[in-house]
Write a structure and sequence with these properties.
The protein is α/β, with parallel strands linked by helices. It has helices at 17-31, 47-58, 87-90, 107-117, 121-136, 144-160; strands at residues 2-7, 38-45, 66-70, 98-106. Helices cover 45% and strands 17% of the residues.
């Protein structure tokens, strides 16, 4: 798995953000039985940056904690079936990796929510990456049952890495 991470603000995290994100991405892909080598792009931004992107892409003029931009269209959540006719749309021609999509994490929200929920900044960051990775794997949480499945998977990913609500 290749993770490209861009930190727009140079936040001094109390943990290795790139390594944590890589671990969460890898754990997600393993649990979802992804048969491909994968490429994910992760951008760390602030309230202003994510608000602008949320407004442009979703028509919602407010901050949010994470945005996901899947590159792959899934017929069924977590089922990695790529039609032969779509391979050029989904795979990097230079590396052969499946370009899963982009994740934007708001560093201001990571810090705020970690404090509000009473757990570590690393745990909140890892949770948001896991949440977004599941979106990139075709999951959503618009309906109650979808939300339950997604929440269970998020918790399993974090538990598998030993990232708990400390």
């Amino acid at each position: 798995m290749t993770l490209y991470m861009e930190d727009e603000w140079g936040v001094n995290w109390p943990f290795d953000a790139q390594e944590t994100a890589r671990q969460v991405c890898q754990e997600t892909l393993e649990r979802e039985h992804c048969p491909y080598e994968v490429q994910v792009n992760l951008v760390l931004t602030d309230n202003g940056g994510i608000r602008e992107l949320n407004r442009q892409c979703r028509g919602i003029d407010r901050e949010t904690d994470v945005l996901s931009f899947p590159n792959v269209e899934f017929g069924e959540e977590g089922v990695f079936h790529i039609d032969e006719g779509r391979e050029a749309d989904y795979f990097d021609p230079d590396t052969g990796e499946l370009v899963l999509g982009d994740i934007m994490v708001c560093v201001d929200k990571v810090q705020e929510q970690a404090q509000n929920y009473g757990h570590s900044i690393r745990r909140e960051f890892a949770f948001l990456v896991a949440h977004s990775m599941l979106h990139l794997c075709g999951y959503d949480h618009m309906e109650t049952e979808q939300a339950k499945r997604m929440e269970q998977r998020q918790e399993a990913i974090l538990a598998g890495l030993g990232i708990t609500r400390d």
